[in-house]
UniProtKB/TrEMBL annotation:
Metabolic or biological pathway: Carbohydrate metabolism; galactose metabolism
Superkingdom of origin organism: Bacteria
Protein name (record): UDP-glucose 4-epimerase
Cofactor(s) needed for function: NAD(+)
TM spans (from-to): none
Length: 339
């Protein structure tokens, strides 16, 4: 009988991290979650996973974690991740995200870990020169947040060259949706993602959703983005592990199809059978008209493809989570009647 692999998941109490933890447990991994709970939620971590409340800035805590467990791989999600905040306080992001990740890389290489899967970002590409955005697109980060992720990608490049720590850097576009089990989902404070904000407007938790500009060169004048179900992201994070036996990899992740803000609103009204109050405001500085990912490389090399590719399915799972958890992780779950 094969011994289960043991993995560390930093930021495993957060949105994408918690879904990766669920996927890892479903596939028989032993999971240790490390999270400082500033943005994550203890309730998002299943009881089957070991939990350590600690900060990556604390090298002593990291040393103890790597001494207590022998990890076959590390999944690194922990980061400050608000683009707007990074524009207001670039040092917080350029220093915090980078130094904390360097601490993790140092602890991992010292302990002899040979695999790390890194949650990077499509913000590496800023305003790209072509669509869809593939791995050869020029890297020109659109914010200090994106720049910090690029710093970490470069640090991982040198960790491979110098220490043999192979890494997978996954650059993804607009994670959305929630786990089909209805237990884990998206709960940010503040919430900045479009789909949960539109759902809140539909349910009356917000007075309206504001469209920032309706005069873009798109079919309906609103920005177009590529949305990917969070469970498809989790699947991709696990799918890269075998590739790390031989090399480091970099992949862009997305559905490869864009949806406009108005299309997201219309899909929400279809899924919820509710009306979404809308106001149109001016454009936000720095918002590109279209951002769509090319995932051809990971599809071709690893056989990955989205299991939840259509917008209605993505929004439907997010809506089910919000119906069951109207107060997020901080409030009681609402029991659902059997159908």
């Amino acid at each position: 009988m094969n011994t289960p692999q043991t993995v560390l998941v930093t930021g495993g109490a957060g949105y994408v991290g918690s879904h990766c933890v669920a996927e890892l447990l479903d596939r028989g991994f032993r999971v240790v979650v490390l999270d400082n709970l500033r943005q994550g939620h203890r309730a998002a971590v299943p009881s089957d996973a070991a939990f350590v409340e600690a900060d990556l800035a604390d090298m002593d805590a990291l040393t103890r974690v790597f001494a207590e467990w022998r990890f076959d791989a590390v999944f690194h999600f922990a980061a400050l991740s608000l683009v707007g905040e990074s524009m207001r306080d670039p040092h917080l992001y350029l220093h915090g995200n980078t130094v904390n990740s360097l601490n993790l890389i140092r602890a991992a290489t010292t302990a002899g870990v040979r695999k790390m899967v890194f949650s990077s970002t499509a913000n590496l590409f800023g305003t790209p020169e072509r669509q869809p955005i593939d791995e050869e697109t020029t890297i020109d980060p659109g914010s200090p947040y994106g720049e910090s992720k690029f710093f970490i990608e470069r640090a991982l490049h040198w960790a491979d060259r110098c220490h043999g720590l192979r890494s997978a850097c996954l650059r993804y576009f607009n994670a959305a949706g929630a786990h089909p089990n209805g237990i884990i989902g998206e709960d940010h404070d503040p919430e900045t993602h479009l789909i949960p904000l539109v759902l809140d407007a539909a349910s009356g938790r917000r007075s309206h959703i504001e469209i920032f500009g309706d005069d873009y060169p798109t079919a309906d004048g609103t920005c177009v983005r590529d949305y990917i179900h969070v469970c498809d992201l989790a699947d991709a994070h696990l799918r890269v592990l075998p590739a790390l036996e031989t090399r480091s990899v970099r992949f862009n992740l997305g559905n490869g199809k864009g949806y406009s803000v108005r299309e997201v609103i219309e899909a929400t009204e279809r899924v919820t059978a509710l009306t979404v109050p809308v106001k149109v405001g001016p454009r936000r500085a720095g918002d590109p008209a279209v951002l769509i990912a090319s995932s051809e490389r990971i599809r071709g090399e690893l056989g990955w493809s989205p299991r939840f590719p259509d917008l209605d399915s993505i929004i439907g799972s997010a809506w089910e989570w919000r119906r069951r958890h109207p107060g997020g992780y901080r409030g009681p779950a609402v029991a659902q009647a059997a159908e």
